[in-house]
Amino acid sequence: MRTPIIAGNWKMYKTMPEAVEACRRLEEMVEDSAAEVVVCAPFTTLSALSALGLAKVKIGAQNMYFAEEGAFTGEVSPLMLTDVGVQYVIIGHSERREIFGETDELVNKKVRAALEHELTPILCVGETLEQRKDGQTETLVDGQIRLAFSGVAPEAAPTVVVAYEPIWAIGTGETATAEQAEEVIATIRATLTQLYGAEIAEAIRIQYGGSVKPANISELMAKPNIDGALVGGASLKPEDFAAIVRY
Ligand code: PGA
Question: Read out DSSP for 6-65?
């Protein structure tokens, strides 16, 4: 049985006091939930959030560089994240790929570096609207998965959380239907089965992300291959995020 994992992606929102307040309130509301709960917060808030020592709400970053240290102005390393108690890190979010030019090769280096430092990578993949219209979704996502997992040992693979996020559904209010999400997520599991065999592929958790709200989470979670959600906008309000966690 895969434990459901609901992660919030706060993006570039919330100052430190706002972040601390939101995590405290969230913890109270989700304490007894069966799902694993993660908040991926801005770098500047991570140290304070992890110092709260919350039992239920785990802390994640939204990005990192793959090297441990070096002359990489402006970057944050896996070592720096574990040093402040961070346990998860989003890798290859479509905003990183589109706005900051991250390639599949860089994403792969980051996934491997996260695993080496015992961080749980939340690896994002997904297609644009054009690619979907062209019927390229499955080939594209299959390629993203193969490249991201390249060099990832079978023992480490089940630690990776995959987030399928169709780019056209991010921040647009337009959610993929549960059927559309399940369809692509099932093909992701098929790719993982080809790479690692059925037992390992069955152990890997795959989230859906893109305009997830309290109103659509239950339908998504009812699908056999959907193991959780990566939630942007709706994770900013603790009440909404808690309602999603308690789907
Ligand atoms: P959204 O963002 O929930 O606001 O669509 C999801 C994401 O970017 O991870």
Answer: EEEE--S---HHHHHHHHHHHHHHHTT-SSEEEEE--HHHHHHHHHT--SSEEEEES---
**93 a catalytic residue:** yes
Handedness of CA 238, 168, 193, 65 (dihedral sign): negative
User: What stretches of 174-219 adopt beta strand conformation (E)?
Assistant: 205-209
pLDDT band at 175 (very low <50, low <70, confident <90, very high): confident
- Among the listed residues 120, 130, 125, the one whose alpha carbon sits nearest the alpha carbon of residue 188: 125
Is residue 25 predicted with pLDDT exceeding 90? Answer: yes
The catalytically annotated residue of 93, 95, 127, 182 is 93
198 alpha carbon – ligand 1 mean position (Å): 30
The DSSP annotation for 72-108 comes to: -TT---HHHHHHTT--EEEES-HHHHHHS---HHHHH
How far apart CA 7 and CA 134 sit, in angstroms, is: 30
Question: Class of the 5-245 domain?
Answer: alpha beta
Strands 5-9 and 36-40: parallel
Could you tell me if 105 and 97 are in contact, meaning their C-beta atoms sit under 8 angstroms apart? Answer: no
* Domain ranges (residues) in the chain: 5-245
Catalytic residue among 27, 95, 127, 165: 165
